[in-house]
Write a structure and sequence with these properties.
about 190 residues, mainly alpha
């Protein structure tokens, strides 16, 4: 009789979370530099929203599905399509295809995304502290931006800009921590 040795089979698919987190984080920082008043809305922000914040996150979400990670699938594909829809809300009126959304419509849009993010935040309570910070600060960001559209008070947008820079930077940190911890095979940057 030949002795059998169990063999561990790895799925061979890389972890897509760093891509999704960095795509979300970098795009969020750049948009919120605009919200904080550092520069105007421009093609750099829109291009990041389409290609990195949008498409890269959707790709990360699809890979998460392949890895059987429902949370990652839902989060990355949803926020990827958030970025694509946000760019659409800015660009479509400029092409004359539809009217610019009213302030109340933008408020509703941002409140819905804030609620969705709040529900996902509860899922992060079973994950790590870094993701709790990303999702917690994102909830606050959506509601601050909704408040700006509900009240017309520009100070909400400026404050949201600074808060959004922190939110995006925390996502970049979580993404890079995942990469470096995997590359070095130990905790280089803690995730909590």
């Amino acid at each position: 009789m030949i002795p059998t040795t169990p063999v561990a089979v790895k799925d061979g698919i890389a972890n897509p979370a760093p891509l999704g987190l960095c795509a979300f984080g970098m795009t969020t920082v750049l948009l919120n530099l605009h919200n904080a008043g550092f520069f105007e809305m421009n093609s750099m922000i829109l291009a990041m929203g389409i290609f990195y914040g949008g498409l890269a996150q959707v790709i990360a979400g699809i890979i998460e599905a392949k890895k059987n990670n429902t949370f990652g699938l839902t989060a990355f594909t949803s926020y990827g399509f958030f970025w694509l829809s946000l760019v659409g809300l800015i660009v479509i009126p400029k092409f004359g295809w539809a009217a610019k959304p009213a302030e109340s419509a933008m408020c509703a849009y941002l409140v819905m995304w804030g609620l969705f993010t709040l529900f996902l935040f509860f899922g992060t309570l079973k994950l790590n502290r870094a993701l709790q910070i990303v999702f917690g600060t994102l909830v606050i960001l959506f509601f601050l931006l909704a408040a700006k559209h509900a009240t017309g008070n520009e100070s909400f947008e400026k404050f949201a800009g600074y808060e959004g820079i922190f939110c995006g930077a925390s996502a970049i940190y979580a993404g890079i921590a995942n990469v470096l911890n995997e590359v070095y095979g130990k905790t280089v940057l803690p995730l909590g």
